[in-house]
Every structure is written in structure tokens, then in C-alpha cells.
Design brief:
single chain; alpha/beta; Rossmann fold; 5-stranded parallel sheet; 5 strands; 47% helix
């Protein structure tokens, strides 16, 4: 006698897949240290210089989404690797996302930015990684255990935490949101 196939609505831990994802994300977000959030907000709240964002794969997609939101806040932003991204230099800022903190290209780009005098914020799951060691500030997302594939949990949490930092910087102020809306893309 063979076992009945698992219901498509049942997740690996017995709940629905949506409930599993929500529970994992909630668990990680509860563990994010308030001082890390404060440092990230202070970093992204700095005025002056330009803002560069990088990450590889899906982390790179999250980095570009965060860049867009920081641009809405009025900063000069660039996604590393885009044709219009200028050279990084003193007074600039790099936000680098890597769950492992060992992604070769992200590690290389962060090293170049630091050598050129840029400040570095690293969003990672590994505080002991080489990328974290380069950072001026770190935002640790403890996402080691997950039933989801690959780095999904890290990417989900990185997006939510960076959006929360943007919300903190905007103060949920209607005037700030109006200015952000005016900067929102209209060629889409």
C-alpha cells in the first residue's frame, strides 16, 4: 500500500506553504537586532555622496529594489553593473547583499569600493564572513534554517527589512511620501 500524495496546499511542516513562509519570515524578523536596524537607518539616512547597491542572483534583485526605494527618498542611487553606474569614490556608499558573505563577485566589488574610500553596509546571514569583515556596518539576518529552496528566506527578509528602514527614514510622513511619489517612475 502506498501513501497518499501530499496535498498541494500542505507545506513541508504540515501547514500551508504560505503559512510556512510567513512563519519563517516572522521568526527571522523577530531576531533582527535593533542596533543593526539603527545602524542601517543611520547609514541610509546619511546625506551626500552617491548610493551603490549590489548582490548576485536574487540578492541582486533585492539590492535593485532597495536602490529604487532609496532613490525615492531622494538619494542619487546606482545599481552596480548597470551601464550608467559611475565610478565609486570617497564619500560614496555601497550596500552589498550576500547571505553567505562569500559570493566572489560581491566580495570583490565590496573590496574595490572600500579601497576607493566608500562606506560599506553589508546585509548578510553570516556575521563571520569575509564580506562582513570588510563592512563599516552590518545588518545580520539570521536565516540559517529554512525549508524553502536556496536563499529564499534571506532574500525575502532582506527586502522586508530594507523596506522597513526606508519606512523609518520617511517617517510615514505624508509630505515625504508625496515627494517620494513625485520621484516614482512614470515611464512604465
Amino acid at each position: 500500500m502506498t501513501a497518499a500524495p501530499e496535498s498541494p496546499s500542505a507545506g513541508p511542516r504540515g501547514g500551508t506553504p504560505l503559512a510556512v513562509v510567513a512563519a519563517e519570515v516572522a521568526q527571522v524578523l523577530e531576531q533582527v537586532r535593533p542596533p543593526d536596524l539603527d545602524e542601517a537607518a543611520a547609514f541610509l539616512g546619511e546625506r551626500g555622496g552617491r548610493w551603490f547597491f549590489t548582490g548576485q542572483g536574487r540578492s541582486g534583485l533585492v539590492a535593485r529594489m532597495a536602490a529604487m526605494r532609496v532613490g525615492h527618498l531622494g538619494r542619487a542611487v546606482h545599481a552596480v553593473g548597470e551601464a550608467t553606474a559611475p565610478a565609486v569614490g570617497p564619500g560614496d556608499h555601497l550596500v552589498a547583499l550576500s547571505a553567505s558573505g562569500r559570493t566572489p563577485l560581491t566580495l570583490h566589488l565590496a573590496g574595490v569600493a572600500v579601497e576607493q574610500g566608500a562606506d560599506l553596509l553589508v546585509v548578510t546571514a553570516d556575521a563571520t564572513s569575509p564580506l562582513a569583515a570588510l563592512a563599516h556596518r552590518r545588518l545580520l539576518l539570521p536565516t540559517a534554517a529554512s525549508t524553502q529552496f536556496g536563499g529564499s528566506l534571506f532574500e525575502q527578509c532582506a527586502l522586508l527589512v530594507l523596506d522597513a528602514v526606508a519606512l523609518r527614514l520617511s517617517g510615514a510622513d505624508p509630505e515625504v511620501h508625496a515627494a517620494m511619489q513625485a520621484r516614482h517612475a512614470n515611464l512604465q
